[in-house]
Design goal:
The chain is of the alpha+beta class. It has 7 helices and 13 strands. A hairpin with a 2-residue loop joins strand 12 and strand 13. Helix 2 runs parallel beside helix 7.
Amino acid sequence: MQTKEAFSESIREGKMMFIDKPYRWTSFDVVNKLKALLQHRLGLKKIKVGHAGTLDPLATGLLIICTGKATKQIEQFQVLDKTYTGTFYTGKTTPSFDLETSPDKEYPTAHITKELAEKTAGVLTGPQQQIPPLFSAKKIGGERAYTFARKGKDTVLKANLVHIKTFEITEFDLPNIHFRVQCSKGTYIRALARDFGEAMNSGAYLAALRRTHIGQYDVTNAWSIQTMTDMINSFEDQA
């Protein structure tokens, strides 16, 4: 069993930790939770902690946390491909393209078949010019885009080139369409929901999202917040 001293030293020197981010936690909530545990339980008052790739609060799944000197590696993790599973709800849209905001428009779905969904997924596979959601952390003139969105200001963001490596329909159960996507850095799955609905002459929003992989790193090897907390607290019991 690793000692408190050995663990603390590994944190100082630089450690990479895999966390399964809970629903409604922000990525910074996870960073702040770990930092508080390290400061108050292990006495590491001045320690760098950062994450390698933001997950929206309504998403769950793999978050890479780096400490100490390992924070210098964050950029190399951020550029890795990401893999997600989730659900698009068809026939309605929301301003945020997910459940952060309430549905504002309805669309027909009677014409949507599994074959159409799979064909549309194929069309949206490959390089794409994707317009990010206005409800996002993208900057417009030095301000986050979501500040404009929450004030009701109609602003259009510049399209970014992204690459959808894999877009697989895993289950068809209207109004829900379940998927698996592997994509490049900078891809917004919420924006993919918008584009998916529009391409089927309907509407869609992101109803559920889970990040399962960052490059070769798998969420099945990640700790829950409770496991991380229990592990760090256990060092208090050591003499």
